[in-house]
Amino acid sequence: MVIDMKNCIACNACAVACKVENNIPNNVWWNRILTDGGEYRDTPSGTYPKIGGACDLHIDNYPLACQHCSNPACVKACPVGATYKDQHTGVVRQDYDKCIGCRMCMAACPYTGVRSFNWEEPAYVVEGMGDQDAPKHQKHTVEKCTLCWHRLEKGLTPACIENCVGRVRYFGDFDDPESEVSKLLASHDYKQLLTDKGTQPNVYYLV
Amino acid sequence: MPENSRKHSLSRRSFLKGTTAIAGVAAIGGTLAGCGSPKASGVAEDAVFEPGQIAAEGEQIFRGVCHPNCFGFCHVNVHVRDGKIVKTSRAPYKDGTYSRICQRGLSHVQRIYDPERLQYPLRRVEGTERGAGEWERISWDEAISDIAEHMKQVQGTYGPKAIAKYGGSNVTFGTTFQWSRFIQAFDITSIGTAADAASMYGGTLVAGTSTWENSERTDLVNAKTIVAWGDNLTVAQHHMWHLVKEARDAGAKLVVIDPTFTQLASKSDWWIPIRPGTDTALLLALCNRVFKDDRIDEEYLRSATVAPFLVRSDTGRFLRMSEVDPAVAAAKAAQEKAAGEAAAAVMAQYADQGEIVAGMAAQAVMQQMAFDDQPAVLQGGRPIAANEAGAPELFATYTYEGVNCQTALSLLRENVRANSFEWASELTEIPVEDIERLYDVVVDTPVSHMVGYGPQAYSNGKHTYHAGYTLCGLLGNLGKPGASWGSEWMFCPAFNTTYFIEAGMSVAPEINVLAFPEVIESGTWQGNPYPIKMLFVHGGNPINCSPDTNVWLNTVVPGLDYIVTVDSVLTDTARYSDLVLPVAQWFEQSDVTQGGEVPTVSYSEKAIEPLYESKTDAEIMHLIAEQFGLGDFFTTDTDVINAAILDCDELKALDVTFEKVKAEGEARFVPDNPHIAFRDGVFNTPTGRLEFYVEDPQPRCQTPKEITPELIEREHLANWFPPAEAWHENEAMQKYPLVCNSERPRFRVHSQWFGTPLLRELDPEPIVKMNSVDADARGLESGDYVECFNDHGHAVAKLVVSEAVRPGVVVYPKGWQRHQHKAGSWSELISTDYDPFSVNSNFMDVVCEVRAWEGE
To answer: What predicted TM-score, i.e. pTM, was given to this entire model?
Structure first.
């Protein structure tokens, strides 16, 4: 996945698309938009410029969900093999039926907050929201972005890609040099998050 | 009741259809456009949409249109399983540019099945105060007979016009215009809008636009530079952001002029912070420099603007050929005599259909036969007709019978002569060097000036639009690819306006919402008794969204005997009503949506039955009309309504028919793509030119305010004057030193979606943003609850200290309901005072002080 971060305006359409598509329970978000700047959404770092003074205000928006790493810390941490990497696609998947709720994956993952744990029976404002093949949420399991596995299976792109109103999200196969995402990386500056952790994340942010 | 509606009925349809569409619109009021004369589209496009298509086993997809008046009109797939809407997702337009959806459009499931959704009619419990929240569930039969009784009682006692109707921002043909028909049939007083009216008014006066006609935003890609004026596009209308992004990818620079460091500013090549309410001053200084540097586009000014027209110093009007040429005067007299006779004949012909219809017919004849009295221009030292001049003088004076005349361009140059960069710098707090730099950007055309609704929301806001068109006129920066000024709203150019009056025609005036409290209080309108005792509200929330909530709560609400609100949730307005009717939401009925930032009408398909006991607007009107024997005039079938409204020759010529819209899901009503506004220098003004000099300034609508000669003088040309409240030299700011700006929020559209649970997870409560300089001075920190207050009222919100906000300014996202605030609400702080010409809600022209909130 490639996110043209310099053109992300923090609208949260991707987050809402994810929430609805996957029928995510109340108060749980698999995809969030973080502000690199001030403490709150839309707040920059720096100081409002004095009249005639230079402007050092800066704000970036980071949509953040599971990075579907090539070397995922979560997979290694899972004692029961509930978290695993799909060899064919590279998607980091979870088997909720195997999950014992130990939350070791949450502790191991350096990308804080991309996972959530259902402490209670999941609660919904509207029952049965989203895609009929979206994952069924269970008490005492850890959840995260599935890259909309149920959509990938049908040859569709993840909901966050399709519904991005700014058209800044791209999805494809990095192994194919002719893919849109490969070409984007070949022609743009980009960064990955927390590369020093050695997880080799597969979400690239154009900068 | 209603007497007049029974007198007139279907018989005049054939006459009115087409011939008096413009007059009909004028009589009906509101923001309706007249008929233009666009050419037919020769391009046939493939149909891609089939109603009710099956997506997958057990799931059906319907095509809806999200239409909350964000101007986006996004097509959405409405996914239905087991009779329940489970998801909304992006659906295509034929032109893929417009295929998009946002966080609000994606959250419809939780808006439709909002636990707070109204389920059945509610009546205020007798003996309880309005707003006390004491409701009783009643049946529809009880509700409708309650309404009918009150209508009869009010109209019987006070006359038909004693009922008023406030409509909000429902932007469809079927629902919106059925309400227009309803008010016509029952002779109801319509309450006119004042939101964003200053820019619309400025555009109409100067460029002849209806709403905010502009080049399509897909044309941004042709600009060298995009200059955004007070346009919080990345939050308020972020469906347009990708077009700005794509234009930049193609090489356009982005300059943002805004007091706030918005997301758009953060993406720009250059952000110019500006003092609120001074955009006009900046534009006038740029105009002045264009003259000084002789950068004017003489050819454009001669052919496409009023620049060479001679203006009489005594009347302020253009000198006309009938005044200087006796032969023309004689021809004019003869033509006027013939027109008068023809009008009288038509008047007699339609006399049996009543005074109004006959008057409209006569007016139409007068218009058709009006003498083309050309303005005079100077060429070869003598006045000749503008349309015959090849190279008229641009700067000249001429004395006609002792009256000094000057060209409009001379007057303009003189008017901006004192508007130096230094003068503008002092007002705008933009350094002179930056204005110099901006000037270089602006004269390097084509430039797309993308204008938001912020600069126009001050008492001087019309002049920003006036000045912007003036600057672009001087530079010839209009009507060409990449060259434009303004906001964008493409309104369907024609429709069958006779539909409104088939069930009767109202003679009630439109009273503007800003004058409404005064009318309620005084019981008079234009010096005559005018009691208004009952109010219908549909698709709107004036207690939340109109200025000065306390005026509504303390004057309007107590002044009314009966308030009926039609809505799907308990808005602020519903909470202060006597009766609340649960209305069907968008995907529970079919409708045809109007255009906006997409020049296309679209079919929004019914996906499910109305939830609970809710009914569609059309059903509600039908039930009420039945009580008066008019049920047959108010069908419940929205397809029938929309088919009738779209049945219009001008739309047929554009290949826009109801059948096509329904079958294909959409029909584009603008032939060129991208549409370029004012192509070839053609403007829909009285002179057919860009009228940077307004010959006969008239207020946008009637109000009780006096129009003085000084005010008229101010309105001929663009001028800057201080905002009514938000100006540091004003007395109000000695007491309330902060300018209080609002933003159109990311997680609501005005007050729509205020309760949608998943959006409230992202955005749980009212906030207000303030610079650290101002927060520190008051000992406030992020997370504190603070009270913003002035003489009008107050609102309590959580503080977010932000360096995006200009010192001396606070910014709040609007649209929270009163019960969502700890106390007060945002519109309490906004004055109902208005400029007598633009009659606009001054949403930004607000001041306040902020202190820690001590309450619970």
So the answer is: 0.94
